[in-house]
Design brief:
about 90 residues, mainly alpha, elongated, 3 helices
Length: about 90
């Protein structure tokens, strides 16, 4: 694999996370991990521009994951509140 493959996989992961596609993000991150391991095993170092782009994409992934996590937590809190309200109504 190559630096462009790593960058492409990170970009795909960021897009998938923003779209709420957990399976797509997982697959893209697996490709990114494989590309990073292959580059490391070959002793290949990213050019400064590619390294900067990879860091930016990694930050985008982290931000998108945090937003997705917050949405899930909010949905769970809302569901728990609804369940408590239903239980109170049934009493």
């Amino acid at each position: 694999m190559s630096a462009p493959a790593l960058l492409e996989a990170l970009a795909a992961a960021a897009r998938s996370l923003e779209e709420g596609d957990a399976a797509g993000a997982s697959a893209a991150l697996a490709l990114a991990e494989a590309a990073a391991h292959e580059l490391d095993a070959a002793g290949t170092r990213l050019e400064p521009g590619d390294l900067e782009r990879a860091a930016s994409l990694h930050a985008a992934c982290a931000g998108a994951a945090a937003r997705a996590r917050a949405r899930v937590e909010s949905d769970l809190r809302r569901a728990a509140s609804s369940a408590r309200a239903i239980d109170a109504y049934r009493r």
